[in-house]
Amino acid sequence: MPASVKDVAALAGVSSSTVSNYLNHPHVLRASSREKVRAAIEELGYVPNESARQLRAGSSTALALILLDAWLPYFHELSRGVEDITREAGWSLFFSNSNRDGAQESRNLDMFEAHRVQGIIIYPFGDVVPRLETLADRGIRSVVVGPIPPSTKVASVLFDDVGGGRLAGEHLLSIGRRRVMFLGSPTVSQSNDRLAGLRQAIEGTDAAIEVVDVDHLTTDDGMTAGARIAALPSAELPDAIFAANDMVALGVLTQLVRHGIRVPDDVAIIGFDDVAQAHQGVVPLTSVRQPGYDIGRAAGAVLLQQLADPAAPPPAMTPFAAELVVRESTVGRLSAAGRT
User: Fold this and answer.
1) How far is 224 from 117, CA to CA, in rounded Å?
2) Residue (of 242, 188, 241) closest to 215 by Cα position
3) Spatial CA neighbour of 241 closest among 232, 125, 216
4) Which residues share a beta bridge with 289?
5) What backbone torsions phi and psi does residue 260 show, to the nearest 5 degrees?
6) pLDDT of the chain, 340 residues: tens digit per residue
7) Is the whole-model pTM more than 0.85?
8) Helix/strand/coil for 10
9) CB-neighbour burial class of residue 300 (10 A; exposed 0-12, middle 13-18, buried 19+)
10) Environment class of residue 228 by beta-carbon count within 10 Å: exposed (0-12), middle (13-18) or buried (19+)?
C-alpha cells in the first residue's frame, strides 16, 4: 500500500498536522521538524495526493481540454497551444477525447466536473452550450473552439471556416476546374461551413459540386473514398476534390496516384488545416491554413482571462482568418514555385 501521512508522521516522530504543514505551509515549521519530515518522506517514497487535497479545499488548480478527435494532427497542434499557455500560468491540464461520440462527450464533462476543474476548453461534437452554462453557474468557466449560439456565460474562439471554403473554391475556379467533389462529414459543423464557403465561391458560375460524405475525416476515410473515385470511368471523374481536412485529402491523393490518376493534371486536390504532413508528400498538398497552435493558445488565454475575473462577461473575439497555401496538388511543380 502507498505510504500515508500517518506513516510519515510515525516514522518522523511528529504529528500528522506537522506533516500537513510541511506539505502546505513549511515556513511555519522549525528547520529540525522540516528535516525529520523530509527524511521520512524520502525513505517511505510518500507521494502527496494532490487531487484529494484539492477536493478537501473545494477548489483545484486544474483545467480540462476535451478534443473532438485527438488522433488528428490538427488537434495535436491545438492541444499543444492550450497546454503551453496554461502551463506558463501555473495551471495543470487534463486531456480527454470525445471521439465524435455525444455520450462520451457528456461523460467527459461529468468526469471533469466531479474532479472540480476550474475551467474547460472543448472542441465539441454536439450542442454543449446549455451544459456549459449550467457549469458556469457552478463556478466552472469554459471556452468552446468553434461556433456557438449567443451566450452570456460561455466564450468561444472562432476560425473563418466559411471563408476558407470560399478561398478553396475561388482557387479551383481560377485554375479552370468546374467539376468539384467535396468530401466532408455532415455531423461536423466546421465541415458544413467549409462546404458553404465552397458553394458561395461557385455561385453564378458554370461549376458544379458533388458532395460525398465520409465518416470520421481520417486518412483511412480518404483512402476509402479515393479508391471509389479511382474506380470511376474517366468521363465521370471530378476535375477537382476539396476535402474537409488534410488527412482525408492525403488519403485520396495517395489512392489516385497509386491508380495512375495524375495530380493535378487529371484531378486537383485541396485540403484544409495545413498540418505538417501537407507539404511532406510526394505531391505537396494545397491547403487552407488553420493555425491550430495559435487557436489553442487563444482559447487558453480567453479561459485564463475569465478565471482572473469571473464576474466579467465572455470576451468577444475576431475569428481567425483563413489563408490558402498553394502547392503542387493544384498547380503543378513549375507553377507552384514561389506561391506558398
Assistant:
1) 40
2) 188
3) 232
4) 273, 323
5) 80, 15
6) 678 889 999 999 999 999 988 887 788 899 999 999 999 998 998 877 655 555 555 556 899 999 998 888 999 999 999 999 999 999 999 999 998 899 999 999 999 988 889 999 999 998 999 999 999 998 899 999 998 988 999 999 999 999 999 999 999 999 999 999 999 999 888 999 999 999 999 999 999 999 999 988 999 999 999 999 999 999 999 999 999 999 999 999 999 999 999 999 999 999 999 999 999 888 999 999 999 999 999 999 999 999 999 888 898 889 999 999 999 999 998 554 444 4
7) no
8) helix
9) buried
10) exposed
Query: In the chain, which ranges are E strands?
Result: 62-67, 92-97, 119-122, 141-145, 155-157, 179-184, 208-213, 240-243, 268-273, 286-289, 323-325
- What is the rounded CA–CA span in Å between residue 178 and residue 161? 22
Q: Cell numbers at residue 264, please?
A: 493535378
Round to whole Å and give the CA distance between 100 and 215.
10
Whether the Cβ atoms of residue 44 and residue 3 lie closer than 8 Å to each other = yes
Alpha-carbon distance of 339 to 151, in angstroms, equals 41
Measure the CA–CA gap between 306 and 193, rounded to whole angstroms. 28
Amino acid identity of residue 45, one-letter, is G
Give Cα 20 to chain centroid, integer Å.
39
Please give the backbone phi and psi of residue 212, each rounded to the nearest 5 degrees, phi first. Answer: -120, 125
N residues, the chain: 340
Q: With beta carbons less than 8 A apart as the criterion, state whether 121 and 65 touch.
A: yes
* Secondary structure letter of residue 1 according to DSSP: -
Bridge partners of residue 63, in order along the sequence: 93, 119
Q: How far apart are CA 147 and CA 160, in angstroms?
A: 10
SS percent in the chain: helix, strand, coil, step 5: 50, 15, 35
d(CA 331, CA 266): 11
